[in-house]
Amino acid sequence: MKYVRLLVFILLVAALVYFGPRYMDFRASRDAVPPGVIMGGVSVGGADAAEAAANLRSVFESPILIYHGDRRLVLKPEEIGFTIDAEGMIEEAQQYGKGLYYLRDFLLYLGGQQPLGGHVALRYNYDRAKLGVWLHEQSELYDNDPTPARGNLDTLSFVPGQPGRTTDLNESAIDIIAAFTDAYDREARMILHETPSLPPDFDTLADALNARLERFPGIYSLYFQDLNTGSEIDVDADTAFAGMSTVKLPILLRVYYDNDLPLNDTMSRWISDTVKSETASNAAANALMYYIGGEDTIAGARIVTDFSRELGLQNTFIAVPYDSDITPPAIRTPANTNPEYNTFPDPAMQTTPEDVGVLMAEIGQCAEGKGNLLAAYPEKITQAECQELVGWMEQNPMGFLIKYGTPKGTRVAHKHGYGTDTQGDVALIYGPEGPYSLAIFVYQHGWVVWDYSNPLMNDISRIIWNFYLARAGQEQLPPFSEEEQKTAR
Q: What is the DSSP-derived secondary structure letter of residue 292?
């Protein structure tokens, strides 16, 4: 028995000698948080509980980066009341350093192995209301509605606008809290729902047309009307210009007003010469007014002028026939008495882009079996007559000006006019979404330069055509090549 006690004593002393220093090293290696304990996904040390808690807060109670698209935002934890219960986590972590956990770690230490430690879930809290307010404020600042396509004058086309972006507040809140509770990935993204950019609207078209018109070194004026929607674009369209051959349009309509179909051969020949001849025969137009006036050309001009007034074209008149030596009487109109723009319009005959553009639109509506002409003159003007008139104007051989901007084979009924200092063209174009009316007039003091006027009308026409293609999501026509521009001169 004595020897047994001695043996035990010797073993105890040996154990103390062997394990004592190693135990002291083991104790020295342990901080306030037992080694191997992971809190919220991160290992945090500290000489005491206060330091460990501070270290834990430095990780989780720090700002995060949030991206709204490409825009970078910084959110501080105090802005949404985000806090962690560091002391509670430290206290829980310290349980892994007591009792059997302590003995387990010491035995592993003796065996040269790492402690098993444990896991403590992140304990956090935040103010949902504050987070909601912050998200709402950012969405108000940075979300955007989709914008329409915009015009590009270099390509005469429309490029897509900005897509719309709307923040998903609930999903974004989840991503933000995930970033605050992640020790390593401290970035979040606002969850955005995108809506496609809008097709160009008529305001966009008006902006593009104005921008191109402003490049013309002279006075310009434009009227546009979409026959399906009634949408109009007016760029100083009430400016008075020399009427030239464009006022043959009310002459032609008056012929159909006075006559039933079919027209006799003589009348048809005069119309053909007025519309189809290279020079847009003034003699044929005078012959038509001679017939309208009951063998009196002056009376015919007066009837056409009165007819224009009746149609609401207050700025359109023919004072004397074409190429007449008669001194025309002074006729005052709202347009030619407006001092804003002075194109020194011909006192013999005048109009405005609005007058002839509206008249062309009314003829186009009539050809479709609707509109004011049929309503106002049911016994005098018929759909078939308007269709025939449109058909005549489709045979206009002039392929430049407005028509040049449309694809080959497009139905374009138009009447153009040339003067020394003025040029004009009014057209009914059957476009991708249906017919539209377009009238463009330009003036340059002394002489209209073709290399300015024709490209302007080409470009305006191409921009409008591409506007409709862009609205339909179709491939747009390219700008004119240098070779095409040379051909158009």
A: H
